[in-house]
Amino acid sequence: QSYCHRLQHDMYFLTSTSRLNEQVVDKIILQLNRVYPQILTNEEAEKFRNPKASLHTRLSDLLKHLQKKGDRHCQEFYRALQINAEQLFNDLPSRKILKTPDPTEIDTDKEQYMLNDRGPVFFLACFSVAAGLALFWYCSNSDTKVVGRARRILGFSPIIIGRHVRNICMLYLEDISRD
Questions:
Q1: pLDDT of res. 30
Q2: pLDDT value at position 40?
Q3: Which InterPro entries match (predicted)?
Q4: For the chain, percent helix, then strand, then coil, each to nearest 5?
Q5: With respect to CATH, is domain 3-97 assigned 1.10.630.10?
Q6: pLDDT reported for residue 153
Q7: Could you tell me if 139 and 168 are in contact, meaning their C-beta atoms sit under 8 angstroms apart?
Q8: DSSP secondary structure letter of residue 92
Q9: For 65, how many CA atoms within 13 A lie in the half-sphere containing its CB?
């Protein structure tokens, strides 16, 4: 897409109220006037910096003038906008279209965020539940040798799990060993 088409697409966004203030527009005009290649002549720059005209009118006239001049002039306007109002430059509708990925393509950044939004506490909770279920399944086996081994493991468990959980597991193991 050419810069003139992009500028035509972004014109309403740029000229809407309170997007660009007068100081930023003046900086852009001065940059287009002073930087090589000179996009605006001195007369044109004075015309677009005229404080008697409203900011909306001056900005609309500037954008139309740049579109008539050609693609190179529009490109330099985008460069000046990026330098003087980077946040606004990033929010332009034409930039969002350029940033939009192919709908069939997987957005790896979004996928990574979706996988990692739970945090370490969630991981530890899931791991604890899985370890508890594995220990419960190991202890519920009818083999009495397994119960004796599990009792030895649970004897050292106050460090790993709380005393209340350990007492419940020990009572359960004693009930299984009686059967």
A1: 92
A2: 92
A3: CARD, CARD19, CARD_BinCARD, DEATH-like_dom_sf
A4: 75, 0, 25
A5: no
A6: 60
A7: no
A8: -
A9: 17
